[in-house]
Specification:
The structure holds 3 protein chains of 3 kinds.
Chain A: H1 10-30, H2 35-66, H3 73-88, H4 103-130, H5 137-158, H6 171-174, E1 176-179, E2 182-185, H7 186-208, H8 210-220, H9 222-227, H10 232-258, H11 264-279, H12 284-308, H13 312-328
Helix pairs in contact in A: 1-2, 1-12, 2-7, 2-8, 2-10, 2-11, 2-12, 3-4, 3-5, 3-10, 3-11, 4-10, 7-8, 11-12, 11-13, 12-13
Chain B: H1 23-29, H2 31-51, E1 58-60, E2 63-65, H3 69-96, H4 104-121, H5 126-151, H6 157-177, E3 187-188, H7 202-225, H8 227-237, H9 239-244, H10 249-275, E4 277-278, H11 285-298, H12 305-320, E5 324-327, E6 330-333, H13 334-352, H14 356-371
Chain C: E1 4-15, E2 18-29, E3 33-37, H1 44-52, E4 57-64, E5 67-68, H2 74-79, E6 82-85, H3 97-102, H4 110-121, H5 124-128, H6 138-150, E7 156-160, H7 168-181, E8 186-190, H8 194-200, E9 203-208, E10 211-217, H9 218-221, H10 225-232
Parallel strand pairs in C: 3-8, 3-9, 6-7, 7-8
Antiparallel strand pairs in C: 1-2, 1-4, 4-5, 9-10
Classes of the chains: A mainly alpha, B mainly alpha, C alpha/beta.
């Protein structure tokens, strides 16, 4: 077998390109070939895709490395959203509006606090609860589920069950940019930009650093990694912590759009699971590409379902896409065929 | 897998003498099961006798109103029966055959919805409608299980699990958006035959539920102890080895998934009869997750584990939801914190019972016996 | 034989509920090649894995350079200077050959100091350096797996079935390479192919059904026809 530009994964990339083209053509079609409404679909799709990536990336790395499907990942996203909302608004539990009058700085504080809290909670879960259970994967599943319930209830007790919607305005929410004659809030571009930076950043981490090499090797065979003298448990903890931190960070930067609601976690969790399986378990590029495809398809379907007045079409899109991909390619886009 | 036990490759020879086991010996071996069965049969009357409320409800005018301790207790047990059948069916597939599905809610939900739709829109006599519904539920869940099983030929492990999750989620979203079943509000099932109407004849629903529960338990026990069951377990331990031994593992997996799907459909029917409605929640992934968690907590691949997991969690759910505990000056409203407590229960059970409750008990007993 | 670098004394190992090793003792003399012989499923691989800390030893002792290995984690054991080349190679298929070697470096300079020796031993690897490990042939993967164990300064190499599934001509190259590297390293080998084992090893230990049943110098084994016949099934 020779190598080529696609690194031996030509079929997967061809399929990906095909899907991209299909989704974009479909989006053009649903916007009646009107470029400004196509722009809406495009921006909204990339935006949703990036939010998905923020949840899915941690899920994917953790699953690839440790074979744990972290049911609590959605809860971390939610914690991030609540923290960011709370620190931004005067009605929150921790009111910092007087200490920090500048809403932009409050947003940055909120995001950083979410990142930090996500990391700490992630570390606690891996180090103290999951680690004793490494030879009992099923119980890890139950445990992450139990922890997600506890986190959800924790949120319910600290805040309350009525959904919060983001009211505070700050610089990037007010600024605008234009695409194909259509004006968008700069905030959308900000989230898309952060997503792209993160995709590239994690890819560089995986490709160029020693930690990255260890993680990729660990995805294949953690036992062999430890037989080479590397404490693979520490790497597990680190990756798990990072994954949870990124999810909480995602919740925080998504909060100005999604607000903070109790159902946020489970919605994103299920879609993110669909994304990582569609992309191929254990494959980072699969998760990145899968997030964007699902995001774009969601946006196009949202547009389409308004036209034909069948709202359920949009909500089933990630699942439908997953089912189709698995029927064509049972190992997912970039998964290893067995 | 939580439990490893050596498999017997030449299983077909084993069950040959099962027929010869005398009734008395079986009675001695299974006395506890028989005792529980007798208690369950008499249960409405025992509660009625203890509380002084009639097991048939309170008469008002010429009809019965479903009020009183016994009638209430029956409803709790009917829910447990439905839940246990669901969890046992899940365990057949997951615990005994090693197939992990995240889409079991689809079968459960379809049982409820198909029955509701046939009874409400079929325009048939309720009794005939019920029979038609029973047949349709069994056929549809059976065919669906078969199709899902065929797909499992191509998908392995977690891919299969997520594939079934996706299918079930689509089912949930579909029925949530379906206007003839009232979308998120769900479908009221008013046209039940009178003898099986829980608002008039709760005790009949109780016995139908008990019958389903007992039949499922016996069926699964028979099946797993049969030669087919040994192949199931061989697949669970090591599918490739089972193939090498000459079994067409696909056929066996198909069979297990199909039977599990049909049983789940029946459980969904029972719940829909009891609640007199089919709501989209019965298709939600949380039903599957509940079944999975109850199986694991009770004991994967044991006969009684799923029943203990299902009834334990449901009883806790029912009684703690309204409980308020006062210890000295501190009053704790458990109902308000119930879900939080549930989360802690999951975490604690996982850390305390490494093989589920029944599995851990069996191991402890084995160790005790061995050391004696 | 006081200068044994590794001394395995009467170890017992369970895998799940199965008692795989029921008393295995192996002495590995410093600077020589020792081979574990025995039928399939006798417990040779489990012995190597027990030494490496990948299977838990429940009884008995393993001492390496006068320190006990029992109860230590695999990565700690590796850091003491033991290189492991498992059966079926277990190279990282998604990683390039270079990355496969990089990951084995335990401290700065490991790779730079030993790369020349590795390329001298396996010149093929030099031109394959940027390829993913999965694209290599079976023989090349085996070379990479051994090379990976040579990157850090290991004193002892545990090599499991190097000749398995390889063409005779590749086996010849491997035998030459293992002989060369054994000039300044100790090797504990598992080898099913009796001919390969006799070409390589100085000492042998026979394992049968979880017990070590015989040991001695390889030269003597050739005279013990009865022993060879009984435990190894070769004439």
């Amino acid at each position: 077998m020779g190598t080529n530009f696609f690194g031996g994964k030509r079929d997967a990339w061809l399929l990906v390109i095909g899907m991209f083209v299909a989704v974009l053509v479909f989006a053009l079609f649903t916007s009646d070939f009107n470029l400004s409404s196509f722009a809406i679909t495009l921006v909204s799709g990339l935006f949703q895709g990036m939010l998905l990536f923020l949840v899915a990336s941690g899920l994917s790395l953790v699953f690839g490395l440790m074979d744990i499907l972290n049911f609590a990942q959605g809860a971390y996203f939610m914690v991030g959203a609540y923290l960011a909302y709370d620190l931004q608004h005067a009605t929150g539990v921790f009111n910092i509006t007087e200490a920090v009058p500048d809403p932009n700085i409050r947003f940055i504080i909120g995001v950083l606090v979410a990142l930090f809290v996500g990391a700490v909670l992630g570390w606690v879960l891996e180090r103290w609860l999951l680690r004793p259970l490494y030879d009992r994967p099923l119980f890890q599943l139950v445990l992450t589920f139990g922890v997600s319930i506890i986190m959800l209830e924790g949120i319910r007790n600290i805040w309350n069950t009525t959904p919060y919607s983001w009211t505070d305005l700050f610089a990037i929410r007010e600024a605008e940019f234009t695409l194909f004659g259509q004006a968008f809030s700069m905030y959308r571009l900000f989230v898309i930009g952060i997503g792209i930076l993160l995709i590239i950043g994690i890819a560089l981490l995986l490709r160029r650093t020693r930690l990255g090499i260890i993680v990729r090797a660990g995805v294949e065979d953690p036992e062999m990694v430890s037989a080479l003298g590397i404490n693979v448990r520490v790497v597990f903890t680190l990756v798990f912590t990072l994954g949870c931190a990124v999810a909480a960070f995602g919740g925080a930067i998504a909060a100005p759009f999604l607000g903070a609601t109790i159902s946020l976690g489970s919605t994103f969790l299920i879609q993110a699971i669909a994304v990582i399986v569609l992309g191929g378990l254990g494959s980072y590029e699969g998760t990145a590409v899968g997030s964007i495809i699902v995001g774009l398809a969601l946006a196009a379907m949202q547009q389409f379902s308004i036209g034909v007045n069948i709202p359920v079409l949009a909500t089933i899109t990630p699942m439908l896409l997953l089912v189709i991909v698995l029927l064509v390619r049972p190992q997912g886009l970039f998964g290893e065929a067995r | 897998m939580a439990q490893t036990r050596p498999i017997s490759a030449n299983a077909p020879a084993r069950s040959a003498n099962a027929q010869n086991v005398s009734f008395v010996a079986s009675l001695r071996e299974n006395w506890l099961y028989w005792l529980i069965l007798i208690v369950l049969v008499l249960f409405p009357f025992i509660i009625g006798w203890l509380s002084g409320d009639s097991p048939f409800g309170t008469p008002r005018g010429d009809r019965m109103v479903m009020r009183g301790e016994s009638v209430y207790a029956q409803s709790v047990l009917i829910n447990i029966f439905a839940l246990s059948v669901l969890v046992m069916s899940y365990n057949l597939m997951f615990g005994f055959t090693g197939v992990i599905s995240f889409g079991h809610a689809l079968f459960f939900g379809l049982g409820g919805y198909l029955m509701g739709i046939i009874l409400e829109f079929g325009g048939m006599d309720p009794n005939i409608g019920l029979i038609v519904a029973l047949v349709v539920v069994l056929v549809v869940t059976g065919i669906l299980g078969f199709i899902v099983g065929i797909v499992s030929l191509r998908l392995r492990g977690i891919y299969f699990a997520i594939f079934t999750l996706a299918i079930a989620e689509m089912g949930w979203l579909f029925f949530r958006g379906l206007s003839i079943t009232n979308g998120e509000d769900g479908l009221n099932v008013a046209s039940l035959p009178e003898w099986l109407d829980p608002a008039r004849n709760r005790i009949m629903v109780y016995y139908v539920g008990l019958a389903l529960f007992v039949l499922t338990f016996v069926l699964i026990r028979r099946l797993v102890n049969s030669p087919v069951g040994s192949v199931f377990q061989a697949i669970r331990e090591n599918e490739e080895r089972a193939q090498v031994l000459g079994y067409n593992t696909l056929h066996y997996k198909l069979f297990s998934i199909t039977v599990a799907g049909m049983l789940a459909g029946l459980a969904g029917m029972l719940l829909a009869i009891m609640n007199k409605e089919a709501r989209p929640e019965i298709l939600n992934v949380s039903v599957t997750v509940d079944a999975l968690l109850m199986t694991i907590i009770g004991g994967v691949g044991t006969f009684t584990g799923p029943v203990i997991g299902a009834s334990g969690l449901h009883l806790l759910d029912t009684f703690l939801r309204e409980a308020v505990v006062t210890i000295g000056p501190i009053t704790i409203d458990i109902g308000e914190r119930w879900t939080l407590i549930l989360g802690f229960i999951f975490v604690l059970v996982v850390l305390i019972f490494p093989y589920g409750m029944v599995g851990t008990w069996q191991r402890l007993r084995m160790r005790f016996k061995r050391s004696k | 034989m006081s200068d044994n670098i590794l001394e395995v004394r009467d170890i017992h190992t369970f895998i799940g509920q199965f008692h795989i090793l029921e008393g295995v003792s192996v002495s590995v003399p410093s600077g020589a090649i020792t081979v574990l012989l025995g039928r399939n499923g006798a417990g040779k691989t489990t012995t190597l894995r027990s030494i490496m800390g990948l299977n838990q030893v429940t009884q008995g002792d393993i001492s390496y350079m006068n320190g006990s290995l029992v109860g230590k984690n695999a990565h700690k054991i590796a850091q003491l200077g033991i290189g492991y080349v498992p059966e079926h190679r277990a190279i990282f298929k998604e990683l390039s050959v270079r990355e496969n070697l990089q990951i084995a470096a335990r401290k700065k300079g490991d790779l730079e100091n030993n790369l020349d020796f590795v390329f001298e031993l396996f010149p093929d690897l030099k031109r394959l350096i940027e390829l993913p490990g999965g694209n290599l042939s079976g023989g090349q993967q085996q070379m990479l797996a051994i090379a990976r164990a040579l990157v850090p300064d290991n004193g002892l190499l545990l090599i499991d079935e190097p000749s398995e599934g390889l063409a005779p001509i590749i086996i010849q190259q491997l035998i030459a390479a293992i002989r060369t590297l054994a000039a300044n390293k100790t090797v504990l080998l598992v080898e099913q192919n009796f001919r390969v084992a006799s070409l390589l090893a100085d000492y042998f230990v026979i394992i049968d059904d979880g017990h070590s049943v015989a040991s001695g110098s390889m030269a003597d084994l050739h005279k013990e026809h009865e022993l060879v016949q009984r435990y190894l099934g070769v004439a």
